[in-house]
Amino acid sequence: MKEHWPQTLWIARHGQSAGNVARDAAEAAGLALIDVQFRDIDTPLSDLGREQATALGHWFGDLPRAERPEVVLCSPYVRARETARLLMEAAGWRAGEHVRLRIDERLREKEFGILDRLTVHGIRQKYPELNEQRGHVGKFYFRPPGGESWCDVILRLRSLTEMVTREYGGERVLVVAHQVIVNCMRYLIENMDEEQILGIDRLGDVPNCAVTSYRLDPVSGCLRPDLVNFVAPLLAAGAPVTVEADAPAAAKP
Q: What class, spelled out in words, does domain 8-248 have in CATH?
């Protein structure tokens, strides 16, 4: 049986997290370590992140019924799950009644291994050889010990997109995940190469609760870009737009 893309696919980054705030504070202070008490998987939203998720939920809830998501796929990380929960509450959706909610570990954040919680200064100080190697290899292929490269993330997302086309073809699907997931999904769906996606990445971080979306072209059967880093729902609700990296700063060029 031929597999089909969803009718509409939205990919949203989670709201601002406590980790985003702690990272900014550590970088500003020139510290080596990001002071966050949680495991990365357990890091919750900040107060602003909750406001952003609610604003995005109101926007989705205001869509015509025939255009709303039918399926929500979510990273297991707390900040993504909180974003999905608040979004659904604001939209007036209940899992199992209005939408089908599925938590999928393939949508998790990129794993940073021994570089986790380190700032740029911390990585240069503690692992100068790794820092040099990453600069030489480039972020697309560099895999820190115990962590993942972008290619590793893309590999698991290839499995996820195969599942999406097999199980949700022709439906309307919302993905709630992380910055690297947004970019790597764009790489796959838009058939990019390393230079193209890293060029987009260098333009800046994906805003918290920004939406990138695609619509199915009935003639070609392919997804066509619709919205890119769409933040109008936040602006309309008066929720500040934040552009902050999920990852340790070393993940940026």
A: alpha beta
Whose CA is closest to 164, among 12, 4, 10? Answer: 4
Provide the angle, in degrees to the nearest 10, between the axes of the packed helices 194-202 and 179-189.
Answer: 140
Q: How far apart are CA 107 and CA 219, in angstroms?
A: 29
CA dist 43 and 37 (Å) reads 8
Collapsing DSSP to helix, strand or coil, 228 comes out as: strand
Q: What is the pLDDT of residues 129-173, one digit of tens each?
A: 999 999 999 999 999 999 999 999 999 999 999 999 999 999 999
pLDDT digits (tens, 9 = 90+) for 222-253: 999 999 999 999 999 999 999 876 644 433 43
**Is residue 74 within 8 Å of residue 177, measured between CB atoms?**
yes
Nearest to 9 by CA among 231, 253, 214: 214
To which residue do tokens 């240069």 refer?
A: 124
| Closest among 155, 150, 223, 152 to 189, alpha carbons compared | 223
**What residue spans define the domains of the chain?**
8-248
